[in-house]
Predict the structure.
Amino acid sequence: MKTVKSLTGMTTMSLVLMLSLTACGERNQALSNKTGSRGEKAWAGAKNEHVVAGWTAGNEESWKAQIRSRGQYQNEYLKTN
């Protein structure tokens, strides 16, 4: 009877250990489900109508100007002084 209880206890502990270790697994983070290709330039443009005014899709200079403008808008030093 004592061996049955210890065997049941060990089985339960093994099951708990296995379940707790499965929670530590890492999901696949591959880029295969992302849209767009890896070789596409950032300024090539969005494939939708949700782009900011003043930015021309495919124009690298207007893209850089837009990024610079967004960065300055987030600069807290410029906002407070």
